[in-house]
Design a protein that fits this description.
alpha/beta, globular, 7-stranded mixed sheet, 13 strands, 37% helix, 4-stranded mixed sheet
């Protein structure tokens, strides 16, 4: 029997009518799809109901990790495939998963991403690999800044085929989301001891260098300069997102000034 028969797809949604149809179309093979919805008011639910194997559970949003951990409690299969509502699985990735015969010491598999802007593929992006496929009983989610990650007990393998990321929600929705994300990122960066931050987050903690570095890195190093308007859209989007985080931290420092400890940037 294929591992696909032992996989439940888990997706969080909130007003994802621009994306969810493409995501679900790529996982029609799944016997069960668990959707944890935070109270969508657009056509998201109507689109999901077109897929008979999709089960919608409405839960008030209280954090990404909390939503995911609740979702895990609703899964009965050995394996979980956790997707964002703007992810698209390539046929090659499905075929690769179908051929998996993981040993007991393997707890999950990560995949890399190909970033798309309204269907236009970028040469590269800042989106890191993510663990998507994992054993349910060995997983727990934790919040980190505005994001979340799954923590697994055991080894993590790597899938060769990529996942496509293509968020087509309106730009106004993106701005509103980024404002909330900037607050959460600032909370994280300013609350964690500097020694506990990654090198990149230590640079972000300084506030002013990060937007400049993101602009240069995405445009030149990631070659988005050669991706036309889609590339510029991505560069400006990522630069603005990092600028909003920097502004949030500077605003807090100006409102509640305190003498920084030696060797820190707070």
């Amino acid at each position: 029997m294929s591992i696909l028969d032992h996989i439940t797809v888990l997706i969080l949604t909130f007003n994802e009518e621009a994306n969810i149809g493409r995501t679900l179309e790529a996982v029609k093979w799944a016997k069960r799809i668990v959707i944890i919805d935070s109270g969508s008011t657009d056509k998201t639910i109507d689109i999901i109901r077109k897929y008979p194997q999709a089960e919608i559970i409405t839960r008030t949003f209280d954090g990404f990790a909390q939503q995911c951990n609740f979702g895990l409690s609703q899964v009965e299969t050995v394996w979980v495939l956790s997707l964002d509502a703007d992810y698209e699985l390539d046929a090659a990735l499905v075929a690769e998963m179908n051929g998996l015969t993981p040993s007991e010491d393997i707890s999950g598999f990560s995949a890399s991403f190909v970033y798309r802007i309204y269907g236009r593929t970028l040469r590269s992006a800042l989106y890191p690999p993510r663990t998507l496929l994992y054993r349910r009983d060995r997983a727990i989610y934790r919040n980190e800044g505005h994001g979340h990650r799954v923590v697994l007990d055991g080894l993590i393998g790597r899938l060769n085929a990529p996942v496509y990321h293509d968020d087509r929600k309106p730009l106004a929705r993106w701005f509103a989301s980024q404002q909330r994300y900037a607050e959460l990122e600032a909370d994280y960066l300013l609350s964690v001891p500097r020694s506990g931050l990654t090198r990149i987050d230590q640079i972000r903690l300084m506030a002013w260098p990060a937007p400049v570095l993101v602009f240069t890195y995405t445009l030149i190093v990631k070659l988005c300069i050669f991706d036309g308007w889609a590339g510029w859209f991505y560069v400006l989007q990522r630069t603005l997102a990092e600028t909003m985080v920097a502004l949030e931290m500077v605003d807090r420092r100006l409102r509640c000034p305190r003498k920084p400890s030696k060797g820190t940037y707070r």
